[in-house]
Structures are given as C-alpha cells and as structure tokens.
Amino acid sequence: MTSSSAQFEDIKLLEEKLKRGNLPQELYNKANAAIERLVRLTNSSAYSQEYDQVSRFLDWRTSLPWNKRSLDILSLENAKKTLDTNHYGLEYIKERVLEYISVIILKSNENTSKTEKIPQQLGQKAPALLLVGLVGTGKTTMAYSIAQALGRKFGRIPMGGMGDALQLRGRSKAYPDAEPGQIMKVLRRVETANPVILLDEIDRVTDNAKADIMGVLVELLDPEQNSRFLDHYIDFPFDLSEVFFIATANNTAGIATAVLDRLEFIEMPSYSDEQKIIIAKNYLLPRAIAATGLSNEDLEFEGEIWQQIVRPLGFDAGMRTLDRTINGICRKVAKLKVAGNFNKITLTEDNMKKYIPVW
C-alpha cells in the first residue's frame, strides 16, 4: 500500500468515527473542518503530527456523552432501602437525601409506579451537596450510596493536593502536553451526562492554586453557569446541569464563600461508642470475614470485649481505626486457619491481646 493510500484510509477512519459520534451540529462542523484541513496536508511533512493531533482530539470529542443519559430509579422505597443497607443511623442525613430524591420525582412529571425507571427530564437542574465531617465519618461512602439509590453512574475526582485549576478545566490543545480536565475524563469514563460526581476533599487544595480552583468550582456548581462548562481542550461547551455534584470536606475553613453559597450543607456527625459497636457487628465484621476468606463459624466475639475493641488506641470520630482493627483480627485468624490445627476462635478478654494488632 502506498503512502497516499494509507493516508486516505486513515482519513476515512476519522470521517467514519465523526459520523458515529452523535456530536452537536456546531461541534460536528468544527471537527469536520479539522479533517478537511488534514486532507490538504496529505502530501506535507506536517501530516503525521497533524494526524495524531486530529485523531486524538476527535477521539475525545466523540467519546463524550453529549446526548446519553442513564435512567433514574425514582423510588423512595428503593432509596431508603439502599441507604439503610449501607449506613447505620444518620437518619437526619438520610432524610435530607430522600427529600432531594422526592424533588426529582416530582419534577419528572410522570405518574408511574414507584419502581419504574424513568429518564431524567431534560433541563432539570441537579442539586449540589456538601458533606462535612471528620475523617472516617462516611462522607465518601454516602456519596456512593446516593448514586446507587438513584441508579446513576458514579465518578470521583480527588481534590486533595490539587495544585492547578487546569486539572479540572483542561489544557488548550495548542500546548504539546494538552489533555482534557478531570471533569471530561470522568464523563468519558461513566459514559452518561447525568452521573453523580464526587469532588472529594475540596478543602485540601493547595494554597497557591486555591483561588483559581475555587473559581472553577463556582462555575461547576452554579446551576446558572454549569450548563455551558468549557473545557479548554474540548473547546466546546458541555452541559453539566444534570450532573449531581457531591463535595466533601473535613471543615469549611479552606472553602471559598462563593463556593459554599452554591452548595447545600450537610454535616456528617461523629459516631458514639454504642453506634460503633452496632456498625462493627452488623457491617464491618461480616465484611472483614468475607474479605479474608473466613466463614462465620471460624470467629466469634464475646459481647463484653467490644467496648475495648472500639477504643484500642483511644477515640476517633469515624470508623477507620475500628475497621483496621477488625480486619487485623480476621487476618490473624486466617493465618491460624491456613497453618492448620484450627478450631473456632472465640475472642474474650483473656485472649484478645493475642489478636488485636499493634500499630
């Protein structure tokens, strides 16, 4: 095959990809113009570099979910069941979430059964929440649960340590190292225009880039602005008004007032010892037993020792230390089981020091 024939085949592939891309008309015209410019360069030494740029650029544009949406599960019963399965207590927070889902149901203007899946109505503005609480209080898992309750795709953007607003906004294709920002990357990954996107730890962006990043967050979270969000690399407005944004933070001190004004504030409370014990028995221990390959018949905890397991190293507001402790106990039991001569382990005040890990 001659060089010109290979170039012709390459351009034909780009044209076919463009036709399948289902792009907005204006964006289609821009992409088509780029391909026509490439045709004029077929006999030029600049063809190879130009082809790589156009191919990558077209690949990103056609991979975004311009008109693709998932179906919401508009059922309070399903949402409540999902939240109760994933989280113990937190009734106030669950009630707030159910209120938001109720608004979505009413706005759908559909008189259908509670369990039927209904397409989200075009033009409907999604809420933006801010979950604030100490480490380990369940902010991230609550965001997962909200997405699961609605039946939406989920994407996470870690904001902690982010040092450049271009990581969200993207870099113009005029630069050699140009690429889209995290928002477009998440949308491409989830393949829907109405996912739940978690902006994790927005209070922990670097100080030198805070002003710029907060400016982008205002545009992302403001329902009057996010319908035409412009990523510098894609270079065409994308409608984010149907994205359900959930931000998390340990506190609000590092968050700009303008960003706070565009978020619904929900506080994630600390857990009491009694709540931790219930969560450990009903959620953490069964999960740790399954994760380590044990069975329920291999390990038992006497009720009296739970108070000491909850606070082996003192008190923390969340569940992470307790979760690590329970997993450490299960791993020690798993090692004994693999080594042989194993009988059921019952954790008591007399033997617990043998099994509680020392950090």
UniProtKB/TrEMBL annotation:
Q: Which residues form the AAA+ ATPase domain?
A: 125-273
Q: Name one GO biological process term.
A: chaperone-mediated protein complex assembly
SUPFAM superfamilies on file = P-loop containing nucleoside triphosphate hydrolases
Q: Which domain of life is it from?
A: Bacteria
Recorded hits in InterPro entries, A to Z, give: AAA+_ATPase (IPR003593), ATPase_AAA_core (IPR003959), Lon_lid (IPR054594), Lon_Prtase (IPR027065), P-loop_NTPase (IPR027417)
Q: Which GO terms of the molecular function aspect are on file?
A: ATP binding; ATP hydrolysis activity; ATP-dependent peptidase activity; serine-type endopeptidase activity; single-stranded DNA binding
Q: What name has this protein been given in UniProt?
A: AAA+ ATPase domain-containing protein
**Organism of origin:** Candidatus Curtissbacteria bacterium RIFCSPLOWO2_01_FULL_37_9
